Structure formats: structure tokens, C-alpha cells
Amino acid sequence: MFSGLGGLEVDADRRVVVVDADVPSAARPEVMLGPGLLLLLAMDGVLALHASAIAHGGRTILFCGVSGSGKSSIARLAAACGAETLVDDIAPCRIAPTPQLLPRFPQLKWAQPLSGADRAIGIDQIVFVERGTAALGVQPLSAAETRLRLIRHSVAARLFPRALLRWHLDAVTAFTRGVPALRMSWPECAEAAIPGQVAAALARLSAW
Prior knowledge:
By secondary structure, the protein is α+β, with helices and mostly antiparallel strands. About 30% of the residues lie in helices and about 25% in strands.
């Protein structure tokens, strides 16, 4: 059950059903493409990260962070820097044999969510984005710190039953072993300055 929205039921045929008939129609896409999609993907062995992703400079980069940190701004504005936006908000990843992004899944923030290519793409880097007061900075993260951050940004602990949660934690561990991670902090700024910040961030990341 989800406070103020209703509940989901995932049956043996892997159909998502909105249990509460009183769920407002405007809220149903959020329930279905949020918790519902995460459950279905996990049942099929796909790790869904709360992240955006772009292809830039021959590399696929995931951006993870809390709301307001800038990951969606990067996904939206990276095209002006020659990048391709792959996903925004939900990044489905297959782990074996190596971590790969599966971009062709519905995205709540996209008017045409299935416009991306139907392919699996190797993941070269994950960047944890933070807003702060200091100048733009990038630092590498250990696999242990990356794992903790991914778990912290996940809703699996509140959503998955025990067996599925165990799989999720194992998948996060495997992901951190296969993908280098960075922490990127950038200062608060006016909205008009964000495109320039995104360009500067991508230029800095290209050196790693």
C-alpha cells in the first residue's frame, strides 16, 4: 500500500493491478511506472536505479542523486553539449555478464518514453550529483561507498519482499564492482546559469 494513493498487486503472470479502485486516475501512471515498474523489473532480474543517463564522448554515464541535485537538468540539457539523453529518473540495468543500461522502458518525465533505441548499452561510469556552496568538484568513490549510496537512493527496502530485497542488494554489489563511481558537487546557481554548469560538468567528467 502507498500512503494516499492505494495499493498494487503483482500476480503470477506479472501483471500490475491497481487494487484500490479509489486511486485518482491522475495518480495511476505514477503508481504503475514507479513502484509497479520497479517490482516487475526486479522480478525479471533487472536492477532499476533512481538515475538519469546520457551518452557523451563515447561513454555512457549515469547520474544519481536526490531530487533537486541536478541529475534531471543534466539529462535535459546535455544535448546542447553533443550528448544523447538515454533515460531520466529510472535507469533499468542488467547486471550479468557486465552492467548494461536498458533504456527502452517507460519514463514518467517523458512525453514519448519509448523513443530510445531498443538496445543494451554498457555503462562506463556512475556519478553521484550533489548541490553545495563550493566550486565544481569531482572525486572518485570506493566500491563500498558506492554501494551505500545506491542503497540509500533505493526504495527497495520499503517496497520489496525479503527474497527480492536480497536479490536487489546482491545486484547492487555486482553493479559497484563493474562500474567506476565519482562524486560531483556543484554550487547553487540561478536557473539561467544551469546550462553553463552542465557544460562545465561534462567537460570535467571527460577527464576521468
